[in-house]
Amino acid sequence: MTAPKLILDYVYDHEATIPQHKYLIQPLGGGQTREYTWAQVMNEARRVAAHLRSLGLQPGDRVGMLTKNCAHFFIAELAIWIGGFTTVAIFPTEGEATIRFVMEHSEAKVLLVGKLDSWAAQQKGVPDGVKLISMPMGPKGVGESWDDIVAKTPPLEGRVARAPTDLAMIIYTSGSTGQPKGVMHSFERITRAAEGMRDRIEFRSGDRALSYLPLAHVFERAYIECVSMLVGGGQIFFAESLDTFLADLKRAHPTLFISVPRLWLKFQQGVFSKMPPARLEFLLKIPILGKRVGKKVLTGLGLDAVRLAGSGSAPIPGELISWYRRLGLRLLEGYAMTEDFAFSHLSSDEANEPGYVGVPYKGVDVKLSEEGEILIKSPGCMIGYYKRPDLDAESFTEDGFFRTGDKGERKPNGLLRITGRVKELFKTAKGKYVSPAPIENKLNEHPLIELSCVSGVGQPAAYALVILAENIRKEMNDAAVKTRVEKELGDWLVEVNRGLSGYEQLQTFVIVKEPWTIENGLLTPTMKLKRTKIEASVADKLDAWYAEKKPVQWA
User: Which of 32, 89, 261, 386 is most deeply buried (CB count within 10 A of its CB)?
Assistant: First the structure.
């Protein structure tokens, strides 16, 4: 009986059968791009794999990679795998301390350094003795040059096999709380998960996708990199920068597109900055004209060719999903995590409902604990946490289900709704637990709000910190606009509280002027809230806000 294929088997097949297919399209600036065929991808990967072997690395040794999304992330990952090693990708926005922790904890012997914004500060985190290789588009004069290695090193020949149980990668979680954890994934499990994703989303030859979410995170790594490696005949485009994102998106003209809730919200707010929401809603309701208007809006966003769009990584407001569907975008929400290689739940055309994250993938078992915690057994389940057997023991039930840390509810048809995080629950002085995530999800439906964070540990009532939409932030020096914002958000506070139990109701909205960002340490690299840091940043102001008792206040 033939053993099931692994991801490298698919890649070797593409190299042999479609060597001239243009697989990766990298922007170079000024509207110029470079295309990499499968033959070119594998030629470079094989040469760098041979070089890594020449450095004296042992099978399974970890090789670090620090780079923004680019074609050479894919090529470098293949080089690491073909060489017989394990990838440790670090988020390109991480600072010195985290880089040092990940490199030392993983015992990585080599670091591939690519396209970055802050290498001058980050390089201080590289431990002594680590060999550096500068990738194309990376900082100059750093260690050995990738291009020089490719030019002088003969390629590693043949279909170098990896065992199903070999570690393909260690993914360090983005650390919304505490120190990042190293999640170990084997070749067998990432392949089975990627196959299931490919079949469910029907990723096929001819599809196009834009890679811009961090490839160091499981969402982009699984759905874009690994699935495309299985399919072979698709094309992956890359974003050059934030400033060129819309042009990059229009160049890719994707047929498949994934994003995170904050970006879906920013896209919507960009539309609203050009057309008032009420007028757009009126036009969308007009027969025939509504479809044309929706198509025009999607064309302006570069999403008019998308046949399937997905949202993941964090909860997305149900009304936001409904809005995109009214435009004509087939937007489905999913739910998964690093520990199951993003292979857990996805909505379908038959089973979807705003506020629900979908139904289990084929082969995924789900149940709820007595406390309502979501427990999952997935073909993509991790091998364990690197060097943390204590966490492994805590993370699984006796019958092998992973404890997600999320609380949820399920419908008879399998649709799952996330109701909060087990560890994010907090008590106000009223003595009952409040789950912040569902309340934040509701708050974020308002077009004036970009992000919110609900808290209130030990306080008389909960409160919400609010970041205004970018287009509104720019107008805050206008007294009339400021007054309108206070009035609309005051009304929104009343409406939101009507739908909450008494102990959950918010006393006040506090408008925070400085946005939470990855750079200031208040968002993770995947744009999740770092609650502890956000709460700490305003701790000295809480008493004054509660004493004011105003429905809307300014930080």
Answer: 89
> Domain range spanning residue 360?
338-422
Give the integer Cα–Cα distance in Å for 22 and 34.
10
- One-letter amino acid at 305 equals A
387 and 432 in one domain? no
What is the model's pTM?
0.85
Q: Domain with 357 in it: what CATH number? A: 2.30.38.10
Number of domains observed in the structure of the chain: 4
What residue spans of 107-253 are helical by DSSP H? 119-122, 146-152, 187-201, 218-220, 227-231, 245-252
Amino acid at 373: E
Q: Which of 237, 267, 296 is the last residue of a domain?
A: 237
User: Which helix (H) or strand (E) is 439 found in, with range?
Assistant: helix 436-443
Structure tokens at 522: 């208040």
Short-list 212, 280, 207, CA closest to 246: 212
For residues 487 and 501, give the distance between their C-alpha atoms in angstroms, rounded to a whole number: 23
The residues, ordered by sequence, that sit 6+ positions from 487 with a Cβ below 8 Å of its Cβ are: none
CA separation for the pair 346, 339 (Å, rounded) = 16
* 429 and 378 together in one domain: no
| Amino acid symbol at 245 | F
96 and 28 belong to one structural domain? yes
Q: Who's near 250: CB < 8 A, 6+ residues apart?
A: 302
Each residue of 54-94: pLDDT tens digit?
999 999 999 999 999 999 999 999 999 999 999 999 999 88
pLDDT band at 41 (very low <50, low <70, confident <90, very high): very high
Interval 231-261: pLDDT, tens: 999 999 999 988 899 899 999 999 999 998 8
- Note whether 42 and 73 are same-domain residues: yes
Does one domain contain both 458 and 531? yes
Residues 266 and 203 in one domain: no
Q: Are residues 117 and 212 in the same domain?
A: yes
What whole-number distance in Å separates Cα of residue 134 and Cα of residue 156? Answer: 20
Sign of CA dihedral 214, 216, 220, 224: positive
DSSP string, 21-62: -EEEEEEEETTEEEEEEHHHHHHHHHHHHHHHHHTTPPTT-E
pLDDT band with cut points at 50, 70 and 90 for residue 441 = confident
Looking at 374, 406, 422, the residue that finishes a domain is 422
